[in-house]
Write a structure and sequence with these properties.
Length: 341
């Protein structure tokens, strides 16, 4: 073991999601427009509030409100747009706040590492370093056309953000609570193999949708409607997840316990609910890196060639499982980037 003295603490996606929901509720009750960018990152449009209350004063009091009610450390950056606010929030951490006055965006960004600019990851950072670009001020001094010519659209985006230019709006947050899929048969069936194949395929497709939306779910439901139109459903709680090897067996367990009338079946359906932002936390003792890599590879193929381009052998033949689309898909504004730590 490389680090025998290490203390390993298992992540708990359920706890993270509950805390995220608490902060979301506090913010949603008090701000005009809220965008939830991730489980711990929010944008708030405070346009016009400076005429009545003062944006910075309002944001400061809101931060204290979140800290008091949630017990979490909170950082925020206040500026004219989302890019500068996000960078300012990073500079305010841990547990602090920064206001970037209008007109001072470029001087604020100039001395920072170019890696502080959103959309500049490790690979792009290495590319920029090879071009002699390590600080934001270097990009600010370069012609926009040169950045675009060398790096294409990415170069133009980096140049604009480095110069504090970002007109993307704050998109109002509406959290989707559930996703589902169901199939009504053209001819009622008692083909149990067909039913199992279809239910498995539905669960597989919905789990993929969760991962694509950066979501996790903690409630699974299965529905069956018989030829006499009697409808039955069951649901079960699980730890928050978006992993096939957790979701699919639970779906099948519910289906097997529900399908007991041995009558012609008219409809079957699968539903995931109590959805929130997050990603599945691998267990150090139950899962392997190989499992995570498998999901990632499968999802890349699906993203490129379609959600049924790669599937389990047990779902082969389920050609029609319902809708396949991903459901999660003037005066300059004052934008607050607000992040829990």
């Amino acid at each position: 073991m490389l680090c025998p003295e290490a203390t390993v603490i298992k992540g708990n996606a359920g706890v993270y999601s509950e805390e995220s929901r608490l902060v979301t509720d506090i913010l949603r009750e008090r701000v005009p427009v809220l965008e939830k960018a991730s489980v711990d990152e929010f944008y708030v449009d405070l346009t016009g509030m400076d005429k009545h209350f003062g944006c910075y004063k309002f944001a400061s009091e809101l931060r204290q409100k979140v800290i008091k009610e949630s017990g979490l450390p909170i950082s925020f950056g206040l500026s004219i747009n989302k890019t500068v606010s996000k960078v300012a929030t990073g500079e305010a951490k841990p547990n602090n706040q920064i206001k970037i006055d209008f007109g001072t965006e470029k001087p604020f960004l100039a001395p920072l590492s170019i890696m502080k600019i959103p959309s500049v990851g490790e690979k792009m950072f290495q590319t920029l370093c090879n071009l002699g670009i390590k600080k934001v001020h270097t990009v600010q001094q370069m012609p926009m056309e040169m950045m675009e010519r060398v790096l294409g659209k990415n170069g133009l985006t980096i140049w604009e953000k480095s110069n504090g230019i970002d007109d993307s709006p704050v998109v109002e947050f509406h959290e989707r609570k559930s996703i589902s899929n169901e199939r009504t048969f053209g001819r009622d069936t008692t083909d149990i193999a067909k039913l199992r194949t279809l239910v498995t395929a539905m669960a597989e497709q919905l789990t993929y949708q969760l991962r694509q939306g950066g979501k996790i779910a903690s409630c699974i439901g299965v529905k069956i409607r018989y030829s006499d139109f009697q409808t039955y459903s069951k649901q079960a709680r699980i730890p928050y997840s978006s992993a096939d090897h957790i979701m699919i067996p639970k779906v099948m367990e519910l289906f097997e316990s529900l399908y007991n009338r041995r009558m012609l079946v008219r409809l079957v359906g699968v539903k995931f609910s109590d959805i929130t932002y997050g990603s599945y936390q691998m267990s150090l003792f139950e899962d392997t890196r190989k499992t995570a890599n498998l999901y990632e590879s499968m999802d890349k193929i699906r993203n490129r060639f379609g959600s049924r381009s790669v599937m389990r052998a047990s779902t082969f033949g389920a050609s029609n499982i319902g809708g396949m689309g991903n459901p999660f898909s003037g005066e300059p504004p004052m934008v607050l980037a607000h992040r829990t730590m």
